[in-house]
Write a structure and sequence with these properties.
13% of the residues lie in helices and 44% in strands. It is mainly beta. The chain folds into two domains: 56 residues, no CATH class; 312 residues, Kelch-type beta propeller (Neuraminidase), CATH 2.120.10. The strands form five sheets. Strands 9, 10, 11, 12, 13, 14, 15, 16 and 17 form a nine-stranded antiparallel beta sheet that branches. Strands 3-25-24-23-22 form a five-stranded mixed beta sheet. The two termini are 24 Å apart. InterPro entries: F-box-assoc_dom_typ3 (IPR013187), F-box-assoc_interact_dom (IPR017451), F-box-like_dom_sf (IPR036047), F-box_dom (IPR001810).
Length: 391
């Protein structure tokens, strides 16, 4: 790799002109293994270090390193603040395993509640709500606590008495290396999304929302999933009630739909969508969802979106399920690899291996005090340099 550096840059990186210079390539290899917070401190060492750490090559190198060490991201919210923690992501947990949560940052907010999107390349989108009305969107890097407040979304629905709200998703276009935010208006009385939505591209000279059309009004589920730059979420056509999966391509900024065949309508309408090795899938538990009364569940995977090639598998839960999960509801953290469902409850996670039919409960040390907080746990969080290096 050939870098355009001045004479001073080539001479030294350790401050001593009479010492042997340290190759720039080696410096970047070392720094790429540091956590994001440490990178932020290194930016302040000197102008030379700052210029090196802002090179596109280093950004790509850091992203490559981070992708092989994904973590769980834990978000706890209460009393006007969101606290972020990270924890290792176990590949082969056992009964003696334990995890330790590492504090990352805290982000204050002025609303009465908040919604957090799934992490995308190290960033999350926080939507703050005050008295059921959207207050603001904030893009946040949980690793550093740095935030970017987005312009307010202006409603396009005029002359309508019903209360309209907004739901937003963060996406990433890998080819263009762009982050985008999709914001959609919906009628809170009928849960119907309107025909027009707005999208914003981060990193542009002027941050502004622009309209994008959706060809069919539909009811929706606000929980979606992004796979390879495409957002998927469950919905129903507003006028026919037909079950569909809505697809929004962040690159083309266009909507499309997958009509769900009758056989799988219940699975799609009730179960969370998952990323099954790059393929879209869904899970549904029989009995009380994600709780001690569950008895079995089905895994539905679509192999080809255009040909509608669906496959489904049913799994019976082990006899120890109730004793391990305890009473109450569990949160769905994600699907790990090709065989592990991860469920969560405040200070512990449950790994269920569908191939071995084994269940393991793993405690998370350091967050036991947050039992009364709103809790969200996400898998496969990868640290990113955005907001550290700015857009």
């Amino acid at each position: 790799m050939e870098l355009q550096l001045n004479t001073e840059s080539k001479i030294l990186l350790n401050g001593r002109e009479n010492s042997k210079p340290l190759p720039i390539d080696l410096v970047m290899e070392i720094l790429s293994r540091l956590p994001v917070k440490s990178i932020g401190r290194c930016l302040c060492v000197s102008k030379l270090w700052a210029s090196i750490l802002r090179l596109p090559y280093f950004t790509t190198l850091f992203a490559t390193r981070s992708s092989v060490r994904p973590h769980m991201l834990l978000a706890y919210g209460e009393k006007g603040q969101v606290l972020f923690f990270s924890s290792p992501q176990l590949k082969n947990p056992n009964e003696n395993a334990s995890l330790t949560a590492n504090y990352l940052s805290r982000v204050p907010y002025g609303g009465s509640s908040f919604h957090i999107s799934d992490p995308v390349h190290g960033l999350v989108c926080l939507t703050y709500i005050d008295k059921e009305i959207l207050k603001e969107h904030i893009i946040c890097n949980p690793s550093t606590g740095q935030t970017l407040t987005l312009p307010k979304v202006k409603t396009t629905m005029v002359g309508v008495r019903s209360i309209f709200k907004l739901v937003s998703f963060l996406g990433y276009v890998s080819i263009d290396k762009q982050f985008k935010v999709l914001s959609m208006e919906w009628n809170s009385d009928h849960y119907i999304l309107g025909p027009q939505h707005q999208i914003l591209t981060l990193g542009t000279q002027k941050l502004e929302w622009r309209l994008t059309k959706c060809c069919m009004p539909h009811s929706f589920c606000p929980k979606g999933i992004c796979i390879n730059g495409v957002l998927y979420y469950r919905a129903f056509y507003a006028y026919t009630g037909i079950s569909v999966i809505v697809c929004f391509d962040f690159k083309s900024e266009e909507f499309s739909y997958i009509e769900v065949v009758k056989t799988f309508e219940t699975l799609i309408s009730d179960g969370p969508l998952i990323n099954y090795n790059g393929k879209l899938g869904s899970l549904i538990f029989e009995g009380h969802p994600w709780g001690d009364k569950a008895r079995s569940f089905e895994l539905l995977v679509i192999g080809d979106l255009e040909k509608q090639e669906w496959s489904t598998h049913k799994y019976m839960l082990p006899p120890t399920w109730k004793n391990v999960v305890g009473e109450g509801m569990l949160g769905f953290a994600g699907f790990f690899g090709t065989n592990t469902i991860v469920l969560s409850r405040h200070s512990y996670v449950i790994y269920y291996n569908i191939e071995k039919n084994t269940i393991v409960k793993v405690g998370i040390q350091g967050v036991e005090a947050f039992k009364c907080f709103d809790c969200s746990i996400f898998l496969d969080h990868v640290e990113g340099l955005k907001l550290v290096q700015e857009f």
